[in-house]
Structures are given as C-alpha cells and as structure tokens.
Amino acid sequence: MMSESRSGRSRVQSVDRTFALLDALALRGGRASLGDLVADTGLAAATVHRLCGTLAESGHLRRDARRDYLLGPRLQRVGEAARRATWEWAEPVLRAVVDGTGETANMAVREGDGVVYLAQVPSPHSMRMFTEVGRRVEVHCTAVGKALVAGDDVDEVRTMLRRSGMRRYTSSTIVEPDALIAELDRVRSFGFATDESEQEEGVRCVAIAVGEGAASFAISASGPEARFTKDRRDAAVGILRSAVAGLQP
C-alpha cells in the first residue's frame, strides 16, 4: 500500500512500518519485546510479528531465549557504512562553518524525544567546545533541539515535554513549558535557535534546521561566551545558512 507524504511524495506503507520498528528497537537500546514494539509503534501485534519475522529471516533482527527481538548482525554493516557516508556528507558543511566562525560546528538529528549529534568539526582554538558524536541531548536546553522542534505543533511539544521532563542544568535553563513555547515562537520568527548557557555555563550556541520532518537535521556553531559574543553569534547565522545552501537532507 502506498500513501502520500506532506511533501507530495509517494510512501510505501510497509517500508514506513519496517523503519518504525527499527527506530523503536534502537531507542530501546537494541532489544524489545513484541508488546514493547506494539506500544511504541502503534501497529497491530500481528503486523509487528510478521514484519519482525521477515527481518529475523534476513538477519536484520534476531530473537533470544526470552523471545525478545534484538537488532541483528547484518545491521552492523549498514551502520558502519552509514557513519562513513554521513561524515563524507557533513564534513564540508561543518568545515565551512568552522572556517567562517572559528568555533566548533556540529550536525544533529531528532531521535525520539531527544537529539543526537551525528558529526563534529572542532574549533582550531585551544579553548573550544567538544561534544561526543553519538551523544544524546535534550531539546529544551540546546540550540539544535529547539531548531528541530520549532516547527512542531504546540500540543506535540507539550506532550513531548511531559514525557521527557525539563531538567535544569544551569541558572539559565528553560524549565517551564510555556517559556519554551514562547522561545520556539521566536525561533520560527527569526529562523535560528540559540543556547545561552542553558546546558553548560559559559557556552553559547546557535543553530538552524534544514529539511522537513524525519529527514531534517540541524547544524550549529558553539563556543565560549567570552569569545563567541552575541554579535559573533548573530553573524554566524548567515555562515550557517551559506554552508548548507543547496544541501539536501
């Protein structure tokens, strides 16, 4: 069965469902029961069982003695190839950001209720920001997170915040849903998001989102407040936009 996405492109339902299952397994650390997958994806148990059975036969999933589903060994090859391809795609963009701003550049994507960093090119300065590739961070306290959820429906954002919470990291962290909703309004208006020492004291970050829906990603520049002033932060927005010009998710 085929459906049409908001972009007007045709979508294959079975493919959507298969990747929904793989994403759900990944978010659970690579292991889930049939019931877990039904709850996480909203699919019927018979559908989940059928699709997982097919994936298990191909080696992309496996089942253990507890009858849980686990990500299979064939996915390791896919993951390694995806990491290489992502780096080849992201590196020129991030290097352009570093060259233009002098600060560390990151690329990140949504993962469930959080954000995961895919790639980074560090600043040439001895004092610089470092975020481990693969690290998962929260939406409410990061520029990349705000950029990626700014286009979401307000009710969806509130539901996400109820699930994830709004942990305070610094005195500047936004910890009230209404305050974050207002901040996301500003992100939509200006086209970029900021982090003003909200996750880590003394660190400033600016980010923009590129693409739509699940295919979107964010790129950012971050540095110490003393060097990455508000004026330099604002100037970095144009550099970020130029770096992704013509790049497709």
Automatic annotation (TrEMBL):
Domain of life assignment: Bacteria
SUPFAM superfamilies linked to this entry: GAF domain-like (SSF55781), Winged helix' DNA-binding domain (SSF46785)
Record SMART domains: HTH_ICLR (SM00346)
InterPro entries xref list: GAF-like_dom_sf, HTH_MetabolicPath_Reg, Tscrpt_reg_IclR_C, Tscrpt_reg_IclR_N, WH-like_DNA-bd_sf, WH_DNA-bd_sf
UniProt entry tagged with the keyword Transcription: yes
Ranges for domain HTH iclR-type: 12-73
Keyword annotations from UniProtKB, A to Z: DNA-binding, Transcription, Transcription regulation
Entry keyword Cytoplasm: no
Domain annotation IclR-ED: ranges: 74-249
Protein name, UniProt field: IclR family transcriptional regulator
Organism this protein belongs to: Dietzia aerolata
